[in-house]
């Protein structure tokens, strides 16, 4: 039998390990009313990028919060309310949408993160209304885009300029988050019917719907699992060996009242990065106005090491 003191010490260490996960927070100096939606982290440079819903621009800073500045100015290159972003190589892929439904358009920008120069611009109009939410890029330079207002997934095959319908089925209705497996054979969609697994080449849906895995906003592929943000927190969804079925899920972070509408995140190395207090509940997207300016907080970047 262990001595009581040793047993107490081990118990205390175990509880400390469970209740104090490895995380860091950084207070940011961006405008309090930025209302950031998309985030992308460039592990090589140690910088992260945020797209602004309210200010129609993209900002960037180092992950320690230093050197915060605009990456593109408001409405530059006809950028609109900022949505999903991702980085592949030296290219930032950034989606934006007009928030009013009438005469709605979307703009996708490809930007060089080293030079800040525009690589390509895609102006998209999909009547009567589209809500191009998030995107993922394959090794074949295919850009896959979700539309959370429809049953459609779109694709652009670079360097072509044509936007084509990749999928159009109720099986992937109102998809939001999107991810690609590391071997680039499967596409994962966070739909109203749960996480759907799609064979990238044949477009065949490989799993059955399960609404227990619905309500996911952002989603990323990580070591044969998926990580996603839902209203309650950040969860990890484990896959079978073939990557075709969800076998279980585990809470990584459970949100309390200090978390204010986290939406999207990115993964760099073994860590998750997201804005802890987006403050969507204090933003009227119909009028592009802050509801109560006195309640605005300085933005906080949270970094969390994945187990």
The number of domains is: 1
By CATH, the topology is Neuraminidase
Radius of gyration (Å)? 20 Å
The first-to-last residue Cα distance is 31 Å
Helix content: under 10%
Across the major sheet, the strand order is 1-25-22-21
Report the sheet with the most strands, covering strand number, pairing sense and barrel closure: 4 strands, antiparallel
Name the CATH superfamily classification. Answer: TolB, C-terminal domain
3D shape? globular
Give the CATH level 1 class. Mainly Beta
What is the succession of H and E elements? HEEEEEEEEEEEEEEEEEEEEEEEEE
Give an overview in words.
The protein has 1 helix and 25 strands. With 307 residues, it is mainly beta. It has one domain (22-305): TolB, C-terminal domain (Neuraminidase), CATH 2.120.10.30. Strands 1-25-22-21 form a 4-stranded antiparallel beta sheet, with no helix packed on it. A 4-stranded antiparallel beta sheet has the order 2-3-4-5, with no helix packed on it. Mean pLDDT is 93; it is low at 1-20.
